[in-house]
Amino acid sequence: MRKEQIKRMVSEGKISPQEGERLLEALRRSRSGEADREIARRAGKKTRSRRRLYIALAVIIAVVAATGLSLGLYFAFREVDSAGDLFKKGEKAFAEGDYEKAIECYKGGLEKEPSSSAGYNLLGMAYRFLYNQTGSTKYRQEEVEAFTRAIELVPNNPVPLVNLGATLFYQGEKGEAAGYLQRALEVYPDHPDRAGIEEMIREALQ
């Protein structure tokens, strides 16, 4: 993803300024090589950790094989990601432009934490960028459904309110969009992009 594309998405209201800053920071880190070095460091650490784990597991299985407990031990020692881990992995994939992987991670996180409004908002953003990348209307529908679910879980969450309002606005459903955008400003009067949101509302109500 290019810097100009991120700035354009912010100016068009497709993502919030905070989300834009986060993506720009991820882009800067990636270009400076920090992301690659961090990935390599983590991969090396994880490889060493797993090697020690596999050695210990092999010894234990050999001892208890006669009792039929080896399978149980295998599952006991497996690595299991938490919802937070999966959301972080999704954000990393999103910053790298791998929206399909981001969606997979976000969905995994939501399976573990289905009441996460923020998780559904992240999922909606991933579908938005995948739609912009492919033009497939099925992703636009998934985007709308994700933002809607985020609002259902936390009705006064201004982030998905603005995101859903912007999505509806740019696909021509401006009357419905105005309602979500107005609600967002009611619950967050000091929104940093208030002027742009008010402009969309005025256009929608003309």
Task: Give a quick summary of the entry.
The chain is an all-alpha fold. It contains eleven helices and no strands.
Number of strands: 0
Strand content: under 5%
Number of helices: 11
CATH class of the largest domain: Mainly Alpha
First-to-last CA distance: 35 Å
Task: Write down the Rg.
Answer: 21 Å
Question: What class, by secondary structure content?
Answer: mainly alpha
Order of helices and strands: HHHHHHHHHHH
Supply database-style keywords.
206 residues; mainly alpha; Serine Threonine Protein Phosphatase 5, Tetratricopeptide repeat; 2 domains; 11 helices; 80% helix; 0% strand
Mind explaining what this structure looks like?
This protein has 206 residues and is mainly α. It folds into 2 domains: 40-77; 80-204, Tetratricopeptide repeat domain (Serine Threonine Protein Phosphatase 5, Tetratricopeptide repeat, Alpha Horseshoe). It is 80% helix and 0% strand. The protein has 11 helices and no strands. The chain is globular and about 70 Å long. The two termini are 35 Å apart. The model is unreliable at 69-78 (pLDDT under 50).
